[in-house]
Amino acid sequence: QIRLATAITILPLEHPLRLAEDVSVVDTLSGGRVEIGVGSGGSALEYAAFGRDVEKKRELTSEGLAILRTALANGEVGTPGFTIQPRAADFTERIWQGVFSGPGAAYAASGGSNLLLNRAAYGYSEPTDEVQRPWADEFLSHWTQPRAPRIGLSRFVFPAKDKRSALEQIGPDVVSASQRLVERGAFPAGLSTEGYLDRFHSFYGHPEEIVAELRQEKVLPLATDLITQFNPAVPDHDAAIRALELIATEVAPALGWKPAPADSAEPAESAAALTGAAELAGA
Fold first, then answer.
1. Positions of E strands within the chain
2. Can you tell me whether residue 68 is helix, strand or coil?
3. 225 vs 276: CA distance, rounded Å
4. What is the mean pLDDT of residues 98-110?
């Protein structure tokens, strides 16, 4: 029942037809468990490496998403008579769009994409949930599809015995990643490890502490899917397995998540659905 997701595939750096066929192949092999998350990215270096103009990222993303949607709907794309192989299942409810603004959220809603919110809002001095809550509100206000809207909320969650134990596992990697963001102007210089963890909008420490902090999170009440990850931290294997175990057995149930019955292929009904994927979980 574990879903297989991308968060995110940078559409301007992919050929949308090849991407659609790859998605359809994996979906076929996995029995219909794929969720596809797309976005525009923002690295000028990556765009240059792929020969793309970063100044046109929004237009390129829109063009690529239109082709991807048509292809996954088994429509003719590229040239008359061509459709992707294998034939795709219904992806109407399984396309997620990563956005970084209110207008971006409104655009995602207008196209019928699910909303995908990043673990941190870079370049802002305000807390991430205060920045992103208006984006989620904007998404819901522009939603016109007959089905219920879905909002995926990505958050840095690392439970451990206590905060000190958590910091030993995630602190050095977070500081290293923060320095790269400082160089790009996304984070201020000179913060402590705890200060940079705040910039990543992180939840770490004992599970009870994490649950209490998540209950104050301003976007979570609107989320249908809570996506937990450790990135940019790379804890050791045992610590990572233990953290995932604690998320599944202590953090998620305290937030209202319940596992689906063992004989059911349907997703669990819950206030916050826990989405598991190797990339998203940091494993």
1. 4-5, 9-10, 34-39, 95-98, 114-117, 151-159, 203-205, 225-229, 273-275
2. helix
3. 10
4. 96
The packing angle between helices 57-72 and 16-30, to 10°, is: 40
In 112-220, which residue ranges form alpha helices assigned H by DSSP?
Answer: 128-141, 163-183, 193-199, 207-214
Across 215-227, b (16+ Cβ under 10 Å) vs e yields: eebebbebbbbbb
Helix axes of 128-141 and 102-111: crossing angle, nearest 10 degrees: 40
Element (H, E) at 272: none
Question: Phi and psi of 7, rounded to 5°?
Answer: -150, 85
The count of residues in the chain is: 283
Residue 279, pLDDT above cutoff 50 = no
Q: What is the DSSP letter of 51?
A: T
Residue 278 scores a pLDDT above 50: no
The DSSP code for 269 is P
80 vs 254: CA distance, rounded Å: 53
Reported confidence tier of residue 2, pLDDT bands at 50, 70, 90: confident
Overall pTM > 0.90: no
Instruction: Return d(Cα 96, Cα 98) in angstroms, integer.
Output: 7
**123 contact partners, CB below 8 Å, separation of at least 6:** 185, 186
Average pLDDT over residues 244-254: 96
Q: What percent of the chain has pLDDT over 70?
A: 92
**DSSP calls for 206-221:** SHHHHHHHHTT-SSGG
CA-CA distance, 221 to 255, in Å (whole number)?
10
Distance separating the N- and C-terminal Cα atoms of the chain: 18
- Which residue did the predictor score with more confidence, 272 or 223? 223
